[in-house]
Design brief:
The complex is a heterodimer.
Chain A: H1 3-25, H2 29-45, H3 57-76, H4 79-82, H5 88-95, H6 104-114, H7 117-126, H8 129-140, H9 145-152, H10 156-180, H11 182-185
Helix pairs in contact in A: 1-2, 1-3, 2-3, 6-10, 8-10, 9-10
Chain B: H1 8-18, H2 28-74, E1 84-85, E2 91-92, H3 111-139, H4 149-171, E3 185-198, E4 201-202, E5 205-206, E6 209-211, E7 219-220, E8 235-238, E9 242-251, E10 257-273, E11 279-299, E12 303-323, E13 327-329, E14 335-337, E15 349-361, E16 366-377, H5 388-391, E17 394-405
Antiparallel strand pairs in B: 1-2, 3-6, 3-9, 3-17, 4-5, 7-8, 8-10, 9-10, 10-11, 11-12, 12-15, 13-14, 15-16, 16-17
C-alpha cells in the first residue's frame, strides 16, 4: 500500500483524536493544529518502523508520538517553567470555600458523567500550563510521578503537588458548573 | 493504574475523554500534505548535495588515477625516473626503477647468460654508486650543507649522470630491468578528527548544511520506533571524534600498490542535555583495526600522492558517564538509566574509508602527510546512547601524521 494512501487513511481516522490530545496540552487551537501536523509528519517518517501488535497498537503508537511532540514543544518554549501558576493566596481563595467538601467527592463522579465532554475538555484547558501538563501525564498517559519528574525536570514532590492542585481546581470547576446548571441536569 | 480509590471521579473523567475527538477541517489534510512535500524536497536536495560532492571527489580521484596511469604508460622507457638518492648515496625508490636502452636488433639473447650478467651488473652499479657518492661528499664537505636544496639537487643530478654512464656501459643495446634497493616498509603516526555532513531535520526546524562538526547539532532525539528505546526531551550534542593511530605500510614490490594496517584509538564524546538544564557527558573510547589499500598516484622525490580504500573494525573498550542521571523510556514504558552503559552494550563498528593522501618529504626517512577522506559507518544494533556514527553514517574526516621509512 502506498505510504501516502496510508497517511491519508490514518489522518481521516485519527486526526480528531490526535487534535484533542494536542488541545489538552496546549490551549491555543491553531497551535494545537500545528503540533498535530508535526506529529503526523513524524508518523509519516517513521511509518516503516511501526510493527502491528494487534488491535489498537497503531492508535497507541500515534498517541505516544503526539504526546511526545506536545511535551517537546512545551519544553522548547520553556512554557512549563514560565507559566504563571496560581499563587498560594489565590489558590487558597479559590479552593478554600465550602463548595469542595468531603461528601462532594461522590457528587463529583456523577457530575463528571453528566457534563458534556466538550465542557470537561474546556475545564482541563483552563488549568495553568504546569498543572495541566502534570495532570495529563498522570491521568491520561498513566505515568508515575517519578517518570513525570524525570521527563519534565521537576521534583517528584512538585509533580504530585501540582497534580493535587490540578485535581482540586478541576473539582471546583465541575462543582460550580453543576451548581449553576442543576436545572439542566434534572 | 495510578489513581487510587479516592480519585474515582478522575477515572471517570479519563474514561470519558479517552476517546474524545475534535472535529477536523477536511482541508487540513491538504496542508499536511504540503508540509510533507516541502520536507521531502529539502531532504532530496540534501541527498543530492551529498551525492554531488561525493561524486565530484570520486571523479577527481579517478581523473588523477587515469592521468597518472596514462602518464606512467607513456614513460615506461624512462631511464632513471623515480630513483631517489639519500645523503649516503644509496638508491631508494618507491617503485622499481627501470633502466633501459632500447635496441630492437639486439633484443633476442640467451636467457641464462643474461641473468648471470644482470646479477653482476646490479652489484657493480650499487658498489660504484656508493663509492662515487662518498667521494663526492668528501670533496664537497663544506659546500654540502646536507639540507640545502641546491646541494641535494646537485647530488641527485651527479648520481643520475653517473648511473646513466654506468648502466649504458653494461647494458647498452639491451632492454633490461634492474631492480635496485628500495624501502618497502614505513610506519606512520596518525591523528585527526571527523567532519560531519549534517542533514538532520527536526520539528519545525531544518538543518541542511555540510559542515565540520565541532558545534552543537541540536539533534532532537525523537526515535519513534517499536524496537528501539524511545528517547524524549534530550539533546544529544556530538563532539568531534579524535583518532590516534600507528600504521605500518608495506609497498607491494613491483607495483604502485601498498597495504597498510595497524591500530587506532578513537575518542567520541556526547553531551546530553535534559530539560531543566540537566546535563551529562558520556565518553566512548574505541580501538580499531584499519586495513587499507593504497595506490600511488604521483611519486616525486619530495612529494607523493595516493588514494586509499579500506575498512576498519572497531570495538568500544571504555565508557565514562559523568553527570546527572538521565533516563529514557523503552517501548514498554520501562525506565532505563543511561549511566548504566558499559562497553559491552556498544556494538562492533565496521566502516569503509576512501581517502586522498598527499605526502611531503621532510628528511630522507621521514615524511608528513594529510589525508582528507570520506567514511561510511555501517548500521549496527542499537546502543543505549545514540552515537554520532549511527545518526550520521556518512562522514568526512581529516587525518594527518608523520611517516617514517624503515
Amino acid at each position: 500500500m502506498n505510504k501516502n494512501k496510508i497517511l491519508e487513511d490514518i489522518y481521516k481516522r485519527y486526526a480528531g483524536r490526535m487534535l484533542s490530545i494536542c488541545k489538552r496540552y496546549v490551549v491555543d487551537e491553531n497551535l494545537a493544529m500545528d503540533l498535530m501536523q508535526d506529529a503526523y509528519i513524524q508518523i509519516y517518517k517513521h511509518l516503516e518502523t511501526f510493527e502491528n501488535r494487534g488491535e489498537g497498537s497503531m492508535k497507541a503508537w500515534m498517541e505516544k508520538i503526539t504526546v511526545n511532540t506536545c511535551l517537546q514543544y512545551l519544553r522548547k518554549k520553556d512554557l512549563l517553567r514560565n507559566s504563571k501558576d496560581i499563587s498560594e493566596d489565590n489558590y487558597s481563595i479559590i479552593t478554600n470555600d465550602n463548595i469542595i467538601e468531603k461528601n462532594s467527592i461522590s457528587i463529583l463522579e456523577d457530575s463528571v458523567k453528566a457534563i458534556p465532554k466538550e465542557v470537561l475538555m474546556h475545564f482541563i484547558e483552563k488549568l495553568p500550563t504546569g498543572y495541566r501538563t502534570v495532570f495529563n501525564m498522570y491521568v491520561f498517559e498513566n505515568m508515575s510521578h517519578k517518570e513525570i519528574a524525570l521527563r519534565l525536570g521537576i521534583k517528584e514532590k512538585s509533580s504530585s503537588s501540582q497534580y493535587f492542585r490540578a485535581k482540586k481546581l478541576l473539582a471546583k470547576m465541575i462543582l460550580v458548573y453543576k451548581q449553576h446548571n442543576t436545572e439542566y441536569y434534572e | 493504574m495510578n489513581n487510587n480509590k479516592q480519585d474515582k471521579w478522575v477515572n471517570e473523567l479519563k474514561q470519558r475523554l479517552d476517546n474524545y475527538s475534535e472535529s477536523i477541517d477536511e482541508n487540513s489534510f491538504v496542508l499536511l500534505k504540503k508540509k510533507i512535500d516541502e520536507q521531502n524536497k529539502i531532504n532530496f536536495s540534501n541527498k543530492r548535495k551529498i551525492i554531488f560532492w561525493s561524486s565530484g571527489i570520486a571523479a577527481i580521484g579517478l581523473l588523477f588515477l587515469f592521468l597518472t596511469m596514462f602518464h606512467g604508460f607513456l614513460n615506461n622507457d624512462l631511464n632513471i625516473q623515480n630513483i631517489d638518492f639519500n645523503r649516503s648515496g644509496i638508491i631508494q625508490t618507491r617503485r622499481p626503477a627501470i633502466i633501459a636502452r632500447i635496441n630492437p636488433i639486439k633484443q633476442i639473447r640467451d636467457m641464462s647468460n643474461r641473468q648471470n650478467r644482470m646479477a653482476n651488473i646490479d652489484e657493480d652499479i650499487i658498489n660504484n654508486l656508493s663509492e662515487h657518492s662518498s667521494k663526492e661528499r668528501n670533496a664537497n664537505v663544506k659546500e654540502d650543507n646536507n639540507d640545502s636544496p641546491r646541494s641535494a639537487h646537485k647530488n641527485i643530478a651527479n648520481n643520475s649522470e653517473y648511473l646513466q654512464g654506468n648502466t649504458s656501459q653494461y647494458i647498452e643495446g639491451n632492454t633490461e630491468k634492474i631492480y635496485v634497493h628500495k624501502r618497502n616498509y614505513s610506519i606512520a603516526l596518525i591523528t585527526g578528527g571527523g567532519a560531519m555532513i549534517n542533514n538532520s531535520s527536526n520539528l519545525g526546524t531544518n538543518y541542511n548544511e555540510m559542515r565540520f562538526c565541532c558545534n552543537m547539532l541540536n539533534f532532537d532525539n525523537v526515535l519513534y520506533t517499536n524496537n528501539n528505546p524511545v528517547y524524549t526531551d534530550y539533546d544529544f550534542d556530538y563532539k568531534v571524534p579524535l583518532t590516534f593511530g600507528l600504521l605500518l605500510r608495506n609497498n607491494i614490490s613491483g607495483t604502485r600498490f601498498a597495504l597498510e594496517s595497524g591500530i587506532q584509538m578513537t575518542k567520541m564524546s556526547t553531551n546530553i542535555t535534559g530539560s531543566e538544564n540537566r546535563s551529562a557527558n558520556c565518553d566512548f573510547i574505541y580501538v580499531g583495526l584499519p586495513i587499507r589499500f593504497s595506490y600511488n598516484i604521483i611519486s616525486k622525490p619530495k612529494f607523493s600522492s595516493y588514494i586509499s580504500l579500506g575498512f576498519t573494525i572497531e570495538k568500544c573498550i571504555s565508557t565514562n558517564y559523568k553527570g546527572e542521571d538521565m533516563i529514557y523510556f523503552t517501548n514498554e514504558n520501562k525506565v532505563k538509566n543511561m549511566s548504566e552503559i558499559t562497553p559491552q552494550d556498544m556494538p562492533w563498528q565496521l566502516s569503509n574509508t576512501l581517502s586522498f593522501g598527499v605526502q611531503g618529504r621532510l628528511t630522507s626517512s621521514a615524511s608528513i602527510f594529510v589525508e582528507p577522506g570520506l567514511i561510511y559507518y555501517y548500521k549496527t544494533k542499537d546502543s543505549l546512547i545514540p552515537n554520532m556514527r549511527k545518526e550520521y553514517p556518512f562522514n568526512m574526516n581529516m587525518m594527518f601524521g608523520i611517516r617514517f621509512n624503515l
